[in-house]
Structures are given as C-alpha cells and as structure tokens.
Amino acid sequence: MPIENIPEIYINDENSKPDLFVYDFKMASDVVRSKVNLGMNMFSFLQVGKKQVHFAGTSVAVNKDQSLILKKGNWLWTELLDTDATYYCKLLFFSENILKKFIEKHIKNKYKIDDEVPCFTIGNDAYIASYINSLTTIGEAPKEFMKSLLSIKFEELMLYLVHKYGKSFERYLQSLIIDSTTPLKRMVESKVHSNLKLEEIAFLCNMSLSTFKRKFLSEFKVSPGKWLKDQRLLKAKETLAQGTLKPSDIYLDFGYNNLSNFSIAFKNKFGVSPSEVPTS
C-alpha cells in the first residue's frame, strides 16, 4: 500500500503550500484504504459515505452526520460508500502558522496538554452545512480574493466551534501546536485488540517495519508478532468467558482470517478450543 502525501498531491504548485487550502475529494470505489502522510492539519467535512481513521493510539469512525479535524502526521484511513454511488468529502487544510495566530488572538486560557489529541469530532449541524456551501461559493471567486476570503471564513468557523464546544475545543487547538510523541508502548498497547497488521502499526508509529521490530524487541523483550498474538488471544478468551459471543462472532476482530486458524492458535495457547471456554 503506497503512502499518499496529502495535501501535496492536491496542490498544483509544488513549491508553495498555502496556509489554507480547500479540496473536494470524491471516489466511486466501494472501499478505499489509504496510508496517509498528512502534512497539514485538516477539517474533513464528510458529505456522503463513511470514514474510519487510525492515528497512533486513536481510532474513530464517522458518517455523513459528523465531520473531523485531524492532526498532521501519519494516518491510516478507510473511506466507504454508503448507499450513494459516490463518496464525497470536502477537505479544508490549515497551517500551524494560521492556527497560532487564531489562538493568540482569541484563546486566553492556557491548558496543560499531557496526551496527544489527534482528532476532534464535529456534529454536522445547520451552521456546518451552510459553511460547507459557502466554501463551494468561495471556490468560484477570483483567485486574487481567495486567500483573504478563506482567512475570514477560517476565523468564522473556529469562533463558532469555540462557542459550541468550549474548553474541550480550545484544549484541542492548543494540542495541535505542541510537539509531542506517543511512546511506542502506549501506542502498541492501544492497538492490541484491533485487527491492524504489524506493518500498519509500524506506519502509525512513523517507522519502517524493520525499525519498529527492533525497537519493539528492545522495549518488550519479545517479538511484536508473538506479543500481539498472545495479547489478542488473552482478550479473546476474556470475551468468550462473558458468554455473550461465540468464536465465530469474534475471530475477525482479533486478526484471524478464518475460524479454523483462530481455533488452532487458541488451543495451542490455552489447551482448549474456543468453544470450550467456561463462561461466567
């Protein structure tokens, strides 16, 4: 799976990256899963379809009733058609420079940021719908006015979201301009119970697979493949012990392509088949 550098692939002038940039993303495929190196923070105003994103220790799924703000960095995201024939998402990219100016001008509170906050979910209310339409109108304006118009519209949007979401949104904005790294252990432990492949987890750590394996072995004293397999099987056993789900309901969630492989691995680990786990 190739890495897409966004928004660079959408910008015609390779020598210039504007502080604000709008792009209409559309697709007709049923499912597109992408590795993305996001070079700017981004609003993703989903109009038609569904979207799931993974970033380090976080994953979130949204539909057309919600939009996202995504922190720049390495993302895995999956875009799916819903009932319509075309997936449509309006993207608004913004630089740290313009964000810093907004924060200095409008946000007086200073928040302690202990954890990385990679995304923020927005409800698509009447204002957001009107705002998205206004971005389309701006796109038809003369080029010499575009920069000023987008700057005004960006400030308007941010003020609205500060008013609507209050301190949680202010804190999120401040987290976007703080350089922070997610420790390998915290990130890996957050993905134990996902069905992401090892190579995909390495990408989210911004590492090559070989570097990820080396650093993982140094920290965990065991190979990542064995550690993840053991942890996922332990969680699968806990899930089955609750008595509400059958092995056939959960094997995909724990990274197995079929029930047979899951059952063999489970029995090798615990000495009993998944169907023989006593329930509480």
Automatic annotation (TrEMBL):
Residues 182-280 form the HTH araC/xylS-type domain. The keyword Lyase does not apply. InterPro entries: ExsA-like_N, Homeodomain-like_sf, HTH_AraC. Coiled coil: none annotated. Keywords: DNA-binding, Transcription, Transcription regulation. GO terms for molecular function: DNA-binding transcription factor activity; sequence-specific DNA binding. This is AraC family transcriptional regulator. It comes from Brumimicrobium glaciale. The lineage of its organism: Bacteria, Pseudomonadati, Bacteroidota, Flavobacteriia, Flavobacteriales.
